[in-house]
Write a structure and sequence with these properties.
Length: about 300
Amino acid sequence: MEKLHDRKSVPSKVACPVGFTLTNLKAELRAIWECNIKEWKIELAYPISFVRACVEPVIFLLPFLVFGLVLVGGPVSETLKTLVNTSDIVTFTFSGYMIMGFIGTAVWAMGFSIRKEQWYGTLESIYVTPTSRLSLVFGMALHSIVHQSIGTILEFGVIYAIFGFALKIEGILPALVIFALMMFALSGFGVFISALTLILKEGWIVSEGFHSIIMILSPVAYPLLVLPNIAQQASLLLPTTPGLIGMRTFLLQDYRPEILGNVFLHLLALDVAWMLFGVTIFYLTDIYIRKSGALGKY
């Protein structure tokens, strides 16, 4: 009887499937979706904060537009036309700051994914599950992309109603393809940021620093040609540079790209490079953190 009692007290072991299989892929996609749903439930529990976050893109963009219009004296800039062959300040600036919010998806949402779980007190619980840690990061990215898209649609409507701008309708589809390629590379960059957060803990320091660097080197509010040559060369390592240039080429009338080369091939190369780099650094950092026992340190 004693042996039978001891046998019953031993918890049964459940074998988890390992390796890259269709079953595991479906499970990870489900985990990404559930992380996304979890964030929506938390965010919608505070409706005022949610509305504020949706309105923020408009609030951030308006000062730059008004400031530019006052300096130039209208919506047309001859200086801008000599640089990129388009004089439409409003459309040029809007197309850049539309992407600014999605830059935040990589450096803020993905970089903060680990830190937020620490705030919630659930990081250790998630780490002992067989789910990939990257599913947590990509779940946050999915939520942020959808959230930012809502803000961008609102931003588009407000700016169009107040200032008006002209976009080439036939260029929307290739611009969306370029946008998707850019976001894939930014996701790899975001995985890298989340790895740094595992070590440094204070994710806002990492996110703020990289967000500022990307904003300076990317042609968001100004053409790439106004930057020093070394900054122009460095900006080519970021997916936002060919992404913005490619999208503007298809969306703006008579836009002349600041750089030569195939934007699609450039973005594909950056997709592979940044995703491999980000995932490799993340897994190496994950191993180091768990072996050193620093995961639970706040």
